[in-house]
Write a structure and sequence with these properties.
single chain, alpha/beta, Rossmann fold, Serine Threonine Protein Phosphatase 5, Tetratricopeptide repeat, 3 domains, 5-stranded parallel sheet, two-stranded antiparallel sheet, Cryptochrome/DNA_photolyase_1, deoxyribodipyrimidine photo-lyase activity
Amino acid sequence: MSSRFAFQRGLVWLRNDLRIQDNTALYHAARSCAQVAAIFIACPQTWRSHDEGDPVVSFRLACLRELQQSLAERHIPLYFLELQKFAQVPRAMVQIAQKLKIDALFANAEYPLNERRRDSDVREALKKIDVPIEYCTDRTLLPPGAVKTGSGDAYKVFTPFKHTFIEQCGGTDFAPLPQPRTMEEDDNWPSWIEVRGEHNLVQTIPAQLPGYHAVPEKKGELLGWKPGEKAAAKRLREFREDIDGYEDERDYPAIDATSRLSPYLNCGAISIRQCAHMALTLNNGQWAGGSDGISCWLSELIWREFYTHLLVAFPQLSKHKPFKPETDKVPWSYDQDKFRHWCDGKTGVPIVDAAMRQLNQTGWMHNRLRMVVASFLSKNLLIDWRWGERYFMQHLLDADFAANNGGWQWAASTGTDAAPYFRVFNPYSQSKKFDRHGEFIRDFVPELRELGDDEIHCPPPSQNYPPPICDVGQSRKHAIEVFAALK
């Protein structure tokens, strides 16, 4: 072994960090090891139990195939292993480390409860064969637990978290880490190995997994999104040109004014540091102040950080529990018919229906509309927010558990820093304010295209479009009464 390196053979365990640029675990492995390989372990049974749906899994696999090509150019083989459950990973990883003669394992930390338990079990299993593992901070800008109140507790409210976060970041510009070096060619990496009792370790990425349907690619895109690190970098460059207008235009769904980076951030085709670095560089290192558009977008990145930090501080969030335990006493409705109308975009409320159809057709929904449809489900229909949270996880390309859970609990007034229970979005006023001329509605609710700008938000009775499934005013009043009774 060269004296340059601490280890001869290192293995990088890839998860939702599918890139070579600014990948902390990959960077440290390349600096510490003479030779490096990578591995991705799919656990479709566990993923399904976590409500991850066809869109996010198909996009993940497509990004993985793109990454495999980039790694191959650097003589870093990428192995793929299909297991069923997280519980199988520790035993399999020991076999793999032994058969590939691995001296050290590197991975970027993940934060939902089951993922942390899996990673702890892997550490203990590898310790028995003297293979160290390094879990790196990569999905967040600061490690969860690093931002504390004066008394040492986790923040429960966003604004003070944001202030302390910015203070701790100081003058850090979060410059991205370089790509790993190109390795010397090594014929000692086998094309496959047998893993006892499991699927074999191979260098082929499948198009689909058991229990999942592959989302078909059209012209290299999935649901209109091009997978991979290069596509993510291109989208970041494009958004860079428009970011100054973000605050003024981000709430209008007919305008392409949001970053549209969330699917790439979720699978790790781009890093949170790359995003923050771009914005901070443009804003002269300022998190607040300077360009209103840039500081507004940076605040959105801190919201993402906040929700991830909460997962570690409050494990009940990973157990389908509300942050506010008293809200578990809400007499939620479990009306299957109304829920199905909401899912299918057939509620009779145009902006809600347009948003849900956007989700079903593209695997993505405009952020303003996520709040509108979540409020409609959890307040106007009083349907358990967990039904909506699950549906989003199953249909979003950017199905990030922390952000999705945080957003739903915010809208349902069950979470930390949640909307006050008396805040109920009026879908009609939201529609008139943010889709004034009905452009977005016409795109996704074609049966209303012929209506005028005034009628399209609250259409007259028609054979082509259903009547509203609830009275927005009366249902709002009822929801407020229900939540007030909890006090």
